[in-house]
Design brief:
The protein is mainly beta and 363 residues long. The chain has 3 helices and 15 strands. It has helices spanning 3-32, 44-47, 149-154, and strands at residues 58-67, 75-86, 91-102, 107-118, 120-121, 127-140, 168-181, 185-192, 211-225, 230-243, 246-257, 260-273, 279-292, 295-304, 315-324.
Length: 363
């Protein structure tokens, strides 16, 4: 076999390997795990459409996450959402925009969603809130920043470019959710990617797998003395996510001594292996937040305990929530008690006097 044929065969081999790696990166990376926030209650609309309108009025939430800053061009995620509760209709409406960027080629995921929730009073203690979401999504990639191995070896154009003709994909998606809560307990489920849209760059069928999120918690202890301005509480909360072969559990505790709140929780499933058959330890998350009037600002840091180790530099996350036009008096009739997990990262915004012992009714 001539040298030219050997080089040609080697380049073809490299070509197929690169396409396989590229396809896995563009497909499985996005499918195995959606973007996530450690402060999941500080991104309420991303957690569940049922949390749209979960305050007494309007809420603006902004989130920023820088994951693994020790790795160049890893992941940065930004989100902004607005929701409002309409008391005459027992309904909440929200809109959210999420954008995630990764890699030197700026693989960008953009998600815009409209949400609707409806509050059903089961009895004097329990409420049920179903929710739906209609979403538009897109993924984009800057092909000009990609360099393939056969370009480096051959010194010319890569044959891999023949298949990379689509620099962006667009799709429509849906989600549904349900939330039940009382004064001290809450639990919910969200099923996302109901449409399982195709979002391949290669003209193949690569679908977004459905994601199931379970969340809940309990207010273990609360103390409120209005005359002294005292507001203290201790609570436990969790979030579990399952998408194809990916499983993740966040569980921890929050301590509130108004206006300061601290939290600590663990991410991982210690008794089960993850996708690569290793013990599923991810991170320990620490939270510090401060509330001033209608504003709440929070900062959390993920301490990586997975195999990435210290070189990943963990993850930094910021959240800012502004609640305005709040009309708690609309709830004094007992039709809609406060949602315990509505106060962003701390699910503690509950006052017993808001619960009425009036006869049961659905609406």
């Amino acid at each position: 076999m001539s040298t030219v044929n050997k080089i040609s065969g080697f380049r073809k081999y490299i070509h197929h390997i690169i396409l396989m790696i590229f396809g896995c990166f563009l497909g499985l990376k996005g499918l195995a795990q959606d973007v996530h926030f450690s402060q999941f209650y500080a991104a309420p609309l991303y957690l569940s459409p049922s949390l749209a309108g979960s305050t007494d009025g309007a809420r603006l939430a902004m989130n920023y996450r820088n994951q693994w800053p020790g790795i160049s061009k890893a992941f940065t995620t930004s989100a902004v959402s607005f929701d409002n509760y309409f008391a005459p209709f027992n309904s909440g409406v929200g809109i959210q925009i999420v954008q995630d960027k990764a890699g030197s080629a700026d693989l960008t995921f953009t998600h815009v969603a409209l949400q609707y929730s409806y509050n059903v009073r089961l009895n004097s203690d329990w409420q049920f809130v179903p929710g739906i979401q209609f979403a538009y999504g897109s993924r984009a990639l800057d092909f000009s920043r990609l360099i393939f191995a056969d370009e480096e070896i051959g010194g010319g154009a890569s044959g891999s470019w023949e298949r990379l003709t689509n620099e962006n994909t667009e799709f429509i998606d849906f989600a549904a959710s349900a939330l039940v809560y009382s004064q001290f307990f809450w639990g919910g489920i969200t099923i996302d990617h109901l449409a399982q849209p195709n979002h391949s760059f290669l003209g193949e069928e690569i679908k977004l797998n459905r994601k199931v999120t379970l969340f809940g918690g309990t207010n273990i202890w609360t103390e409120k003395r209005r005359r002294l301005g005292l507001d203290r509480a201790f609570s436990m909360s969790f979030r579990y996510q399952h998408q194809q072969n990916f499983k993740q559990l966040d569980a921890g505790f929050y301590w509130l001594n108004h206006p300061i709140e601290v939290g600590i929780w663990y991410r991982g499933i210690p008794f089960f292996s993850n996708i690569d058959k290793r013990i599923n330890h991810d991170a320990i998350i620490l939270l510090l937040s401060y509330k001033y009037g209608a504003f709440r600002i929070g900062y959390s840091y993920d301490i990586t305990i997975s195999n990435l180790g210290l070189q990943s530099a963990g993850a930094h996350e910021l959240s800012l929530i502004f609640e305005f036009n709040q009309k708690s008096h609309l709830r004094l009739g007992g039709r809609r008690p406060a949602v315990p997990c509505s106060d962003s990262a701390d699910p503690l915004n509950v006052d017993a006097y808001k619960y009425s012992k009036k006869p049961k009714k659905l609406f």
